[in-house]
Amino acid sequence: MDANSFMLKRDDAALIVIDIQERLAAAMKEKIMEQVVKNTAILIETAKTFGMPLVVSEQYRKGLGQTLPALQEKIAGCDVLEKIHFDCTRDDALGRTMAAVGRKTFVITGIETHVCVFQTALSLLCGGYRVVVASDAVASRRKHDWEYSLRALAQAGAVVYPTETISFMLLEKAGTAEFKKLSPLFK
Question: Which of 17, 57, 112, 167 could in theory staple to 140 by disulfide, Cβ–Cβ 3.0 to 4.6 A?
Answer without folding.
Answer: 112
